[in-house]
Amino acid sequence: MIRRGRPEDADAIAEIWNAVIRDTTHTFGTVEKTPGELAAQIGAQPWFVADTAGAVLGFVTWAQFRGGTGYVHTVEHSVHVAEAGRGRGIGRALMAQAEVAARAGGIHAMIAGVAGENTGGAAFHAALGFREVGRLPQVGWKFGRWHDLVLMQKLL
């Protein structure tokens, strides 16, 4: 079941997100998220979680793409699914709900920032109708090397 995120989901969300931060280049960030930080964000921006029998197996959230009033209708999202939930359509279900909610909130465009070597993430977004609109070579530094960032966009 896809439902709105709640502050009490912060521990599970942190566990999912921190594994991505620690173990992959899917995000270039290196500072792990704290449940307190995430609980505060859940109250301040849209969050949806995939809840299966009381276990949070994935999440999606978004925020304004860039600062300033000219960007209020464009958002960048983060979607992550726990290892145990992969291959079960959870990511697709989360993104479907995110698109419905974003449209209802007046959002015109969603942006995905995908690490260049995350070919699975790029294929996932392409299957959802996102298209590559830009590639920024060597803008991310992680694990002692440079990484490209691929920008993908879907007009809602």
UniProtKB/TrEMBL annotation:
UniProt keywords, alphabetically: Acyltransferase, Transferase
CDD domains given in the database record: NAT_SF
All copies of domain N-acetyltransferase, residue ranges: 1-156
SUPFAM superfamilies cross-referenced by the UniProt entry: Acyl-CoA N-acyltransferases (Nat)
MF annotations from Gene Ontology: acyltransferase activity, transferring groups other than amino-acyl groups
Pfam families the UniProt entry points to: Acetyltransf_1
Highest taxon in the source lineage: Bacteria
Keyword Transferase (UniProt): yes
InterPro entries (UniProt xref): Acyl_CoA_acyltransferase, GNAT_dom
Name the record gives this protein: Phosphinothricin acetyltransferase
